[in-house]
Amino acid sequence: MSRSVSNTLKEQVFSQEMTDPAIVLITISHNDLSEDIYVSDDPTETLASGFRGTVSNGVDYTHLPFELSLAEQSDNLLSRARLKIDNVNREIILAVRAASNEPPLVNIKIVLASDPNAVEFEIPDLRLNDIRANALIVEGDLQPEIFQSEKFPKNSVNQADFPAVFGG
Fold first, then answer.
1. Can you tell me the distance from the alpha carbon of 43 to that of 65, in angstroms, rounded to the nearest whole number?
2. 138 CB contacts (<8 Å, ≥6 apart)?
3. What is the pTM of this model?
């Protein structure tokens, strides 16, 4: 599965000196959360809340130190990425604990500092699985939804559930 990277980002990444720094924005969402969690790796701007972070498309992304290791892309291999976020304000661990049934979803966006409203690269809807947390960090594996593990067809066609199919 290929992902599109903007030419602007490619030019910056392949240049000898990156003149326009890339900023990684992460959104953590789940139906059990009252609101999404927005995290930025860039502390250069002061937000309306008084915290440091990034404003992108009208959304305040709060700066929290994190490590994001993306997996190599391959058509034959399903690999995992990892996300490790400092548990500075305990908001993330509370959100992860509140999430029931389904894992939280993580969206990753890369923008350039010169135009944080233009998304240069995006990986949407990664599931945050195998979550581990302690007083210092929250970490987990990021995986796309795996449709191969879904039951197909969803329902079994049998006489009890679908009598008309069997002439009843």
1. 9
2. 84, 85, 87, 92, 93, 96, 131, 132
3. 0.76
